[in-house]
Amino acid sequence: MKITRIDCHVLLDPGYDSGSTSSAQDDLVVEIHTDEGLTGIGETDLNAWVARACIEAPGTHTMDRGLSQMLLGEDPLQVEALWEKLYIGSAMTGRRGAVIHAMGALDMALHDLRGKALGKPCYAQLGGKTRDAITPYASLQPEVDNWDRYCQSMMEWLSLAQRSGFRAAKLEMTPFGPYQHKGLKAGPAEMTELIREARRAVGDAFFLMVDVQYAFPDADTCLAAIRPWEEFNLFFLETPLPADDLDGYARLAREQSIPIAAGEWLATRFEFLDLMDRGKVRVAQPDVGRVGGFTECRRVCDLAAARNLTVVPHLWKTGLSIAAAVQMAAATTHCAFIEYLPDELCVARLRKSLVKGTPQMVNGAIPVPDAPGIGVTLDRDALAYFKESAERLRREG
Fold it and tell me: In CATH, what number is assigned to the domain containing residue 68?
């Protein structure tokens, strides 16, 4: 079997809001085709236009080859060897960042393709199934621009999540900082009150997380703000500091009790080694696409296991990423949860409608599927609709 063509689909929700702190409004989906009629699909959480350029750009010398160029004509079943070929062949431009994220979409598609060729789920090639069901947490980020309405909406969503069977939820709260969501304005005291109200509403047995999306500029500011949060028994606090402030993360780990989670933006196991060993996080959050695909995510999970750390995969794209995270979690004993956003708690049309067969929660858990590959298919009508929206943005500038 040989790879014959790679299609890159840039997608855009026509109702996108540039003031929203959400990457679920656009997407880059790849399809890897073969001479035997099999096709694998993948996506990555990266500016879709940048991701397409990383994949389709040609190369002119041995240290800077094009990703598509390196895959055409290759045997798609040699997934791990192809990862190494792409990593080494693009080393001058890649090694980290956008090129690795783009590689993640390709690697995801190759795993999907190999699973289909072998008639097995992806987890069978990632170490084998370790459980029959995955526990999701509801990731909640109301799309409103007023703090009072935000709090009201958050509590309504939280109540709905609990009634729907969720045993865990994450409050996405960014009313200040570099990624201030939709112009919201509030301070740490107001955030404390919302967390207190949330904990009171769901009870002590419910797992509660908080994501502040890099809001605090340094460890001193963060420590002063989150001291009151220690009483709320949070499962983790996600990305409180700038991504590269590893010494600051280490201080948070030493000087307060809430487990710190991070890693959603990272590319390759090498960046995770820094985060784990220097940053001292207790929860590693690889995004299957961004980190470099299933191949590299498996390595990150193994490194976390060796350090007795918890893994909770990040995802914020479509049902394709949900399905990928389920496959990864099924093969990872120390994966506590996966991020999940059911249709009733989601306003992003692209996320809800792009794929068919998105894993569904049943009685608070997601049954591990047994379909070959990742286990989902693209909705071709939705794909065409969102592609046209992206093309219209390009034409109109």
Answer: 3.30.390.10
